[in-house]
Amino acid sequence: MKVFCISDNVDTQMGLRLAGIEGVVVHERQEVLDELDRCIIDPEIVIVLMTTKIVNTCPDIISNMKLNYSKPLLVEIPDRHGSAKVGETIDKYISEAIGIKL
């Protein structure tokens, strides 16, 4: 079982690499989608960490994957440049999944 990081900046990727988490730095929507496809195919990757900026490149696809794919688990992480409202994002996903506003 492996954790993988898809990041938009080198600092986040390097920090996680020091913790033993491999990853890539990408900037374009197609690069993000290509990496996500690669992570889905790889049976070893069970968790994919993505910075908020990466999630914002294709929120519709990532939201759909979170709701409909059992593997890998997609987790949004804030980076040092962002002031992400990750809690609100989680509330939104739960509300969409169960149909009740939290």
TrEMBL record:
Keywords: Ion transport, Transport. SUPFAM superfamilies: AtpF-like. Belongs to the V-ATPase F subunit family. It comes from Anaerorhabdus furcosa. This is V/A-type H+-transporting ATPase subunit F. InterPro entries: ATPase_V1-cplx_f_g_su, ATPase_V1_fsu_sf. GO terms for molecular function: proton-transporting ATPase activity, rotational mechanism. It comes from the Bacteria.
